[in-house]
Write a structure and sequence with these properties.
The chain is 37% helix and 15% strand. With 390 residues, it is α/β, with parallel strands linked by helices. The protein is globular, with a radius of gyration of 20 Å. GO terms for molecular function: galactonate dehydratase activity.
Length: 390
């Protein structure tokens, strides 16, 4: 087995972080530990973990490395450490696949499907903290259907007060109703509340969504309030989805046992990589719960998500968000084989190349890593000046 001898970290526009591992015999693996707005802290965590547990060790002992990174520090979990583990784990799987000459999904047991349904994000510019006007939303919805997508997701919640006016509920519901009218009933529409609603507001909104049959309502409340999800789920026919801000299988186990979730959304860039994400998705299957990997990130994370998507039976759909960025940034895909992540008639095709199935344009990555990204989470305030959830 090859030994890991070198690593590099690259923070690149628009807000992504890549890690590159290299073995003694020249194999290279890429991972993406993107945690928006916290790249410096994740870099430090990756640096410590790689130097302590990866450099000088055999690349192929992926599960042993995962346990060492997770358990040996005594303090564990949380977005910073788990994001760091995520990127390293993805890169190790990339090397393993290249060493074996097979895509990672083959090493996970082989494909369970011939193509993977995608949903396209159309519903708002959360980077700037504002939502698209209805005219742009209508255009994006029509373009998605014309491109063959059978599912889209919209931003379902602007800034909300703890208890907001009926007109605010009407505004949000009207947006869903408008998109439903545009795409018809053959296309699914997910609604992302982004943790911006309190329990009473989430209750009102989800009930009002029912006539428009959304595919799911995402993060109806903040993850620290997940204890109210069973109550929300019992009072509606709308599927409840959440999980992008959970960071361990123990947190997902509690969510599944409580019975308040229909679709889990683990974030592959922040949860422990391919290894932990696969374990969580398999655990969800035993509860009869579907999964849709959360991935509004860069191409390495998307590629890693697809490997699990083709090897996991209870995956419902895969997020496709590379187009959500401004045109000048969306063009920076950092891939030499861009077709590997391109949807065909609303579906991803199985990656054909070994490892994660992507070929990184290293020259472009190095060039763009010289750019000072300086991306921070936008600060949103309500009309009374108090801080609102992003």
């Amino acid at each position: 087995m090859a030994t890991i001898v070198d690593y590099e970290l690259f923070e690149v526009p628009p807000r992504w972080l890549f890690v590159r591992l290299e073995t003694a015999d020249g194999l290279v693996g890429w991972g993406e530990p993107t945690l928006e707005g916290h790249a410096d802290m994740v870099k430090a965590a990756v640096d410590k973990l790689v130097k302590t547990h990866i450099i000088g060790y055999e690349a192929g002992r992926i599960q042993d490395h995962w346990q060492a990174m997770y358990r040996s520090g005594f303090y564990r979990g949380g977005p910073i450490l788990m994001s760091a583990i995520s990127g390293i784990d993805q890169a190790l799987w990339d090397i393993k696949g290249k060493e074996c000459g097979k895509p990672v999904y083959e090493l996970l047991g082989g494909p369970v499907r011939d193509r993977l349904r995608a949903y396209r994000w159309i519903g708002g510019d959360l980077q700037q903290g504002s939502d698209r006007p209805d005219s742009e939303l209508e255009t994006a919805a029509r373009e998605s259907v014309e491109a063959g997508f059978s599912a889209v997701k919209i931003a379902g919640s602007p800034k909300l007060r703890h208890i907001d006016a009926p007109s605010k509920v009407d505004e949000i519901v009207d947006r869903l109703a408008h998109v439903r009218e545009v795409v018809g009933t053959d296309v699914d529409v997910g609604v992302d509340l982004h943790g911006r609603a309190t329990r009473p507001m989430a209750t009102r909104l989800i009930k009002a969504f029912e006539p428009y049959s959304p595919m799911f309502v995402e993060e109806p409340v903040l993850p620290e309030h997940n204890h109210v999800l069973p109550e929300l789920a019992s009072g509606t026919t709308v599927p409840i989805a959440t999980g992008e801000r959970l960071y361990s299988r123990a947190e997902f186990r509690s969510l599944l046992v409580d019975g308040g979730v229909d679709i889990i959304q683990p974030s592959i860039a922040q949860l422990g990589g391919i290894s932990e994400t696969k374990r969580i998705i398999d655990m969800a299957e035993t509860f009869g719960v579907g999964a849709a990997i959360d991935c509004p990130f860069g191409p390495v994370a998307v590629a890693a998500s697809l490997q699990i998507g083709f090897a996991s039976w209870n995956i419902l759909t895969q997020q496709q968000s590379l187009e959500r960025y401004p045109e000048e940034e969306a063009d920076i895909t950092y891939l030499e084989n861009q077709d590997a992540l391109r949807c065909v008639d609303g579906y991803f095709e199985p990656p054909a190349e070994p490892g994660l199935g992507i070929e990184i344009d290293e020259e472009l990555v190095r060039e763009q890593s010289a750019v000072d990204v300086k991306w921070n989470t936008p600060i949103r305030r309500r009309d009374d000046g108090s801080i609102a959830e992003w």
